[in-house]
């Protein structure tokens, strides 16, 4: 049984990915930051369907938490085959001119430093160079990396641009070590994240400008993530799948 670690898997895209991964036969490490009840709910749904899963609290923006997260995965599952760097945050919509230093630190710590740390720990376990079985890393980026999100969250967009660059560079760095690194770039997915930006109904406001004329579901993103995580995408590395309704 392969083990998949999904960061931020208590809610939204991460939760949908955890549930679908279990359906695909993975043992699932369900990471969450503070909403234990949501993560436990995902784990219980997997267990009640006969799957294997555990919830692990860790804030990926903190190095000590990341180290403990991977140790707990080692202890609980024994090996790691896939990492989904899904955890991510955005903050209230505003222009760059109004952004303060603390906000920038929170965004970049959670959306890119944490992903570097998780990739580092995953490589130590997966790389054939270190005696590991090889593996896959899937980064959850955003259409914002392409658009820049002016007037809303240029900080978030820039962090996702950095995640795309990490995906490209790392995919080449570890290709000969049995690890593939790819990314999905969602947009307009029905989750709680839009409320964090101060506009819970954002998708309804913009949906007429989306070619498919609707928002997407977390499961539609999960499908792309799990394709990239699996051997079904065995000849792809350093690529991006946009799940954006045609935008
Ligand atoms: P969401 O519904 O707000 O869920 C975010 C999840 O990430 C929660 O489980 C949260 O944990 C966890 N999390 C946040 N910060 C964390 C941290 N520092 N350490 C560990 N876990 C953390 O968000 P979502 O919409 O599913 O977004 C998931 C990913 O997709 C993000 O990277 C986001 O940027 C990206 N994305 C989303 C959309 C969209 O339209 N929804 C579009 C493009 C990209 P708690 O439950 O404990 O708070």
UniProtKB/TrEMBL annotation:
<keyword id="KW-0560">Oxidoreductase</keyword>
<dbReference type="InterPro" id="IPR020904">
    <property type="entry name" value="Sc_DH/Rdtase_CS"/>
</dbReference>
<protein>
    <submittedName>
        <fullName>NAD(P)-dependent dehydrogenase, short-chain alcohol dehydrogenase family</fullName>
    </submittedName>
</protein>
<comment type="similarity">
    <text>Belongs to the short-chain dehydrogenases/reductases (SDR) family.</text>
</comment>
<dbReference type="InterPro" id="IPR036291">
    <property type="entry name" value="NAD(P)-bd_dom_sf"/>
</dbReference>
<dbReference type="InterPro" id="IPR002347">
    <property type="entry name" value="SDR_fam"/>
</dbReference>
<dbReference type="Pfam" id="PF13561">
    <property type="entry name" value="adh_short_C2"/>
</dbReference>
<dbReference type="GO" id="GO:0016491">
    <property type="term" value="F:oxidoreductase activity"/>
</dbReference>
């Amino acid at each position: 049984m392969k083990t998949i670690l999904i960061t931020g898997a208590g809610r939204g895209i991460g939760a949908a990915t955890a549930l679908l991964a279990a359906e695909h036969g993975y043992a699932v490490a369900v990471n969450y930051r503070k909403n234990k009840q949501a993560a436990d709910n995902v784990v219980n749904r997997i267990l009640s369907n006969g799957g294997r899963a555990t919830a692990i609290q860790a804030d990926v923006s903190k190095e000590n938490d990341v180290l403990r997260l991977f140790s707990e995965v080692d202890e609980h599952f024994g090996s790691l085959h896939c990492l989904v760097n899904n955890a991510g945050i955005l903050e209230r919509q505003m222009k760059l001119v109004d952004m303060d230093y603390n906000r920038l630190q929170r965004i970049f710590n959670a959306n890119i430093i944490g992903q570097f740390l998780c990739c580092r720990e995953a490589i130590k376990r997966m790389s054939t160079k270190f005696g590991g079985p090889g593996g896959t890393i899937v980064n959850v980026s955003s259409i914002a990396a392409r658009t820049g999100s002016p007037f809303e969250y240029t900080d978030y967009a820039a962090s996702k641009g950095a995640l795309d660059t990490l995906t490209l560079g790392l995919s080449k760095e570890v290709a000969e070590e049995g690890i593939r690194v790819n990314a999905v770039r969602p947009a307009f997915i029905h989750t709680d994240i839009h409320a964090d930006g101060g506009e819970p109904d954002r998708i309804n406001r913009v949906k007429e400008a989306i070619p498919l004329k609707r928002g997407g579901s977390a499961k539609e993103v999960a499908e792309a993530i799990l394709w990239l995580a699996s051997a079904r995408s065995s000849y792809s590395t350093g690529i991006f799948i946009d799940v954006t309704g045609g935008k």
